[in-house]
Structure of MFS transporter:
Amino acid sequence: MSCAIARPSLEASPSSPVSAAPHQGIARHTPEYLRAQWALFLAGFASFSLIYCVQPLLPAFAQTFGITAAQSSLALSLTTGLLAVAIVLAGAFSQALGRRGLMFTSMALASLLNIAAAVVPSWNALLAARALEGLVLGGVPAVAMAYLAEEIDPRHLARAMGLYLAGTAFGGMTGRVGMGLLTEWVSWQFALGLLGGLCLLSAIGFLALLPPSRNFTPRPGLQLHFHLQAWGGHLRNPQLWSIYAVGFTLTSIFVSMFNYATFRLAGAPYGLSQTQISLLFLAFGFGMVASSTAGRLAERMGRRPLLLAGFALMLAGMLLTLSSALPVVFTGIALVTTGFFVGHAVASSSVGPLAGATKGHAASLYLLFYYLGSSVVGSIAGWFWQHGGWSAVVALTAALALLGLGLAWRGRGFAAAG
């Protein structure tokens, strides 16, 4: 984030958890806090709408290119798979390049690649564009988490993280619902290109709004030993391991459900249109509320009870989707969405307090596991769908929800984070 960010001389050293005289953090009810909120809301909106905009288009891809449901899911799985790897690298590069400039560059390049995906002529070319999109988007999620952990007053971190995640929920909803609605009137190619242009404007707004870093000192050069030492230290921390495992489990359930719910509702006995299916993603509105509410409740109740509640909601929701009645199915999807965003808000805000000075490295590892769940289990669930239908997908995700409950109950990281 190389946008001429002014930094005071007294800043926390990234090589030591003890700082000389750190800025105490951006407090609530200040103009800087409001600017940071809106900037990171735009970052969450742009990045998540770009990542997940193809999800309601998977049946259209299967029809256009003559491919299977599992093959069409690669348009999302390749993006999230390379995103998982890129996030780790971005956490390291942001130590040298700065936070703000890297996030802006990532958002702008990903927007242009989404436009490219809209105009390429073949399935393989579309997959290549989507893969590159995941690679460049790595500069947003981990760096945003690190920025919040460094710059926001610790008393308000959970609340601020929840509001950032509300932006990701809005982006996920807008990308998915917008794609579905637009494809009733225009081609999916035009819809993808239009979203790319909107996200490019969001990137410019983000750059104009985000306050400069005050508790971050750049480390010029790659400094491989420093980064390996930071990652290794976090991977040897059992408290962080429990949080990373929870992130993997959360997104495995969530993405698997939405990937194949679209195919279930498009087929018999429902036969829903693309527009009708896209309305399914209005459930992300519950995620927006859940994220911001979870941040406030975590300050009062603690993280572990909320995480247990999040996984319980996801389990109950997946079981409800076994019903053949559409209202019950939609209720189940809303419960899974609410539980996911509650859990993600709790888990992501638990990383920073345990990370010491290398918060970017810890956040990048959390998101590595988070997106590996999306990519790996999201594709594996395609095998369950093809061989066992929706009941098999529910069995897989219900088992993961039970695993998540166990991790939340036994994980020490959530009690230690406060």
User: Anything to note?
Assistant: Residues 1-21 have pLDDT under 50 and may be disordered. The radius of gyration is 20 Å. The first helix runs from residue 31 to 52. The CA atoms of residues 302 and 418 lie 6 Å apart.
